[in-house]
Amino acid sequence: MVVMRPHTYTPVSAGTPPEPTIVVGCTCGWRGTATADTNANPDPGFQDWLSNHFKPFLEAGGLRGIIAHNNISRLVEGFANAGHIHWMSNIRRTIALSWGWWSIINRTARAILVLSSVYQMREAVPLVRTVLEHTLYLEALQRHGETAVDAAVREHIRNVRNIVNTGQGGPVSSGSRADFEPLEVPDPIPDAAWTQQVSAICDRLGVTNSLYLLYRVLCGQTHPSLTTADQFIGDPDREDLGIRREPNFDQDSDFLFWTGVMLVWAGQAMNRLLTQPILVEELGLAEQELGVVPVEEVSTNANFGAMNVSKERIEQIMFGESGSPAAGS
Ligand SMILES: [Zn+2]
Known about the structure:
By secondary structure, the protein is mainly α. It has two domains: 58 residues, no CATH class; 259 residues, no CATH class. Helix content is 54%, strand content 5%. It contains eleven helices and three strands. Strands 1-2-3 form a three-stranded antiparallel sheet, covered by helices on one side. Strand 1 and strand 2 form a beta hairpin. Helix 1 runs antiparallel to helix 10, helix 2 packs antiparallel against helix 9 and helix 3 packs parallel to helix 9. The chain is globular, with a radius of gyration of 25 Å. 32% of the residues are buried. The structure holds zinc ion. The site of zinc ion has 5 residues, from loops.
């Protein structure tokens, strides 16, 4: 669990004999010192940065975060550029619902990347929750089929009626009420009810101790709570509490990883509905690199999350296309 700041080596200042130390810098603010010995190593500062800063960052979760970031970028770009989708005419309603949810998943994932790039990953947590919820609903819809759409329609009407009833007598009730008055909530669809609740979907898929747990963690960081307030307090025992404006939050790589995993599941769920699969290459690469297993296997498959990245890919991340080290941007 690390913060995904860009890390680029920047030699700060070189020592001159007889003082052979050089100060080593990183774009993230890290500082180190190395002994200048140009005979043994043309750039000992770079070696110091690599061994004592960048490699530890990658090993602490940075590599997974960078790989997730790259795959999310590729997938949401693929979504934005994708052409037509093709489906069988008898699942028109299912497609309408799925397409909307899939679009929200992709656009929200892109928003998470944007927040991550300006060091506001904490503020992206509610968005990660949105991606998770929509992905779970999409999985449930794809598995259950047509009557899950009826369950969604019923839930929608029930919600609208609740909203109208809540506003009765208040300043925004007039006008809207008449519009919704004729809406009768249809009979419940008992066998499809599970598709309309996060806990029930996780229970049905056998992922309560993994994905439902994640959902609860995300909820805890979304609603007002001690957890959310505590991120801005450095030391409760100090008189000034150690108040801070930058949150104490270092789960960037974890939440980028989960966002990437959700995108894979959501894309695969869409493709099971379509007659011509889309983003096949992008989804395959993300699945392989992030170690994504089918959603029902998350709690039981030991290989889930086991990264599978080529040596060339790691080298490209460490040294960049141009040969200069850069990451996380
Ligand atoms: Zn750094």
